[in-house]
Amino acid sequence: MKKAGIVLTSLLLVVGLVTGCGASPAAPTTSSTSSSAAVPADVKAIKDRGVLKVGVKVDVPKFGYKDPSTGKVDGFEIDLAKAIAKKIIGTETIETTAVTAKTRGPVLDSGDVDMDISTFTITEERKKSYNFSDSYFTDGVRLLVKKSSGIKSLKDLDGKKIGVAQSATSKKAVQAEADKVGAKVSFLEFGTYPEIKTALDSGRVDCFSVDGSILFGYLDDSTTILPDSFSPQEYGVASKKGNDGIAKVVNDTIAEMKKSGDLDKLIQKWGLK
């Protein structure tokens, strides 16, 4: 009986060792939990909400434009927002808020949107206030005038009035270029692009200046875009300072779209080149 007891004890020890070895697969569960916890809080908030909130332009044809007959907002930047949403939450679910050059900063500051994708030019000054992604589109400041004006270049705008958007980079860019060619110009600032076009049509201003791709949306039979192009405008996705998780996801998405050619496909889809 003593011998049998020894054998039984040995068997129990072996079973215990086998059971202990069998418990080791639990480790991946801990790793998975750790991976989930590693999702930055700002990104997790969007995932949990199930919708990406984005500030967009609604008065820039081909970039972000609201069709007055349907109320639908679409454009290149809307498609880019959907791609970022899919990266974060797995679907293209977005909620858009209409912004202008003047209001896009405040809605970002208030937390009403997660990011702005709104022809937002990257500048060193703006980087002090917001996180900016790498550039997803490059444009230049251009000049739209009435064909009947006889204006052929920026130099011909000497003594003329130029309409620009509030808080946009256009005014500074045009002033710098006007100084180079010796043209003395003045400015009128407006809240929206349609307002500037109306001012041009009525004669309140002699020129409508903003990025070329935006101007092409306001070109008609009575107007022309001058050949002058200056001050390259690099567009970036802006997010709130401190939301570094969001900034990284945005940059990763843009980098992947550049590498795959998907970004170029969107640019071609909207006729931006």
From TrEMBL:
<dbReference type="GO" id="GO:0005576">
    <property type="term" value="C:extracellular region"/>
</dbReference>
<keyword id="KW-0732">Signal</keyword>
<keyword id="KW-0813">Transport</keyword>
<feature type="signal peptide">
    <location>
        <begin position="1"/>
        <end position="26"/>
    </location>
</feature>
<dbReference type="InterPro" id="IPR018313">
    <property type="entry name" value="SBP_3_CS"/>
</dbReference>
<dbReference type="InterPro" id="IPR051455">
    <property type="entry name" value="Bact_solute-bind_prot3"/>
</dbReference>
<dbReference type="Pfam" id="PF00497">
    <property type="entry name" value="SBP_bac_3"/>
</dbReference>
<protein>
    <submittedName>
        <fullName>Glutamine ABC transporter, periplasmic glutamine-binding protein</fullName>
    </submittedName>
</protein>
<dbReference type="InterPro" id="IPR001638">
    <property type="entry name" value="Solute-binding_3/MltF_N"/>
</dbReference>
<dbReference type="GO" id="GO:0030288">
    <property type="term" value="C:outer membrane-bounded periplasmic space"/>
</dbReference>
<comment type="similarity">
    <text>Belongs to the bacterial solute-binding protein 3 family.</text>
</comment>
<feature type="domain" description="Solute-binding protein family 3/N-terminal">
    <location>
        <begin position="51"/>
        <end position="273"/>
    </location>
</feature>
<dbReference type="GO" id="GO:0006865">
    <property type="term" value="P:amino acid transport"/>
</dbReference>
